[in-house]
Amino acid sequence: MASTTRQTTAARKKATAAAKSAAPLDFEPIRIAANDDVEEERVPLFYIGDDEYTIPKSIPKGIALQYLRQAAEIGHELATAPLLIRVLGQDAYTALEESKALDGEQLESIVDIIVAQALGKQEKEGKARRG
């Protein structure tokens, strides 16, 4: 069985009660919306003939985290395909695979756009600007 970090309502209440009786924290717990509460707006990335293929306007940071973990484990090149499939969807990825007209420059542009959108400004600016 896979382990999970989700807490039941009772566990959250117990943890909240314990936290109130303990020393105060320097932060408040971060609330993240449930996936069902997030609407995904998509924008066009490329066309094959007249068929439009889109990506999320805002790529979820969880996808970026998955990509970074895989890039650290297996390298950027091998982590790119799962990133593209996750962002584009299987149909769009298959359309790229089967395209006879796709050239290297176009593919490189698609990959660069997706990686930049997934990672945001972090890839260009790095951690140096945070401190």
The helix/strand order is: HEEHHHHH
Strand content: 5-15%
* H/I helix tally: 6
Query: What's the average pLDDT?
Result: 84
Rg result: 20 Å
Let me know the number of strands.
2
Choose one word for the global shape. Answer: elongated
Which strands sit side by side, in order, in the main sheet?
1-2
Distance between the termini: 41 Å
The largest sheet, given as strand count, sense and whether it forms a barrel, is: 2 strands, antiparallel
**Helix share, percent:** 40-55%
Describe it:
- The chain has 131 residues and is mainly alpha-helical.
- The longest helix has 16 residues, at 104-119.
- It is 53% helix and 10% strand.
- It has a two-stranded antiparallel sheet with strand order 1-2.
- Helix 2 runs antiparallel to helix 3 and helix 3 packs across helix 4 (90-98).
- A hairpin with a 2-residue loop joins strand 1 (42-48) and strand 2 (51-56).
